[in-house]
Write a structure and sequence with these properties.
Its main location: membrane. By secondary structure, the protein is mostly beta strands. It has one helix and four strands. Strands 1-2-3-4 form a four-stranded antiparallel β-sheet, with no helix packed on it.
Length: about 90
């Protein structure tokens, strides 16, 4: 058997090497349709959260963690998320 899976503690599980897409939710907006249809470039769409509120991380529609937005040092503006809470996916909590 290939030993490449053993280094990460998931020996024998080929799915541990499959990348997934995580969606980061920073908030929701609920404009009226008429206001949405009138929007132009540079319009402001208010969200239901503040800048310093936690963001939520989802895989599909499943919440997996919460965190705070941060900027990667030395990488001129690239965003990242510092995890502050991780859902216990194995026990469903």
């Amino acid at each position: 058997m290939d030993d490449s899976f053993k280094a990460d503690g998931h020996s024998g599980n080929p799915f541990s090497q499959v990348p997934i897409e995580i969606t980061i939710s920073v908030g929701k907006a609920r404009p009226l349709i008429r206001d949405l249809l009138r929007m132009k470039q540079d319009a402001i769409l208010p969200l239901d959260r503040r800048v310093d509120d936690p963001v939520e991380l989802y895989v599909g529609d499943k919440l997996i963690a919460r965190g705070e937005l941060t900027e990667i040092e030395g990488d001129s503006g690239q965003l990242a998320v510092r995890l502050t809470e991780v859902v216990d996916l194995q026990n469903g909590l």
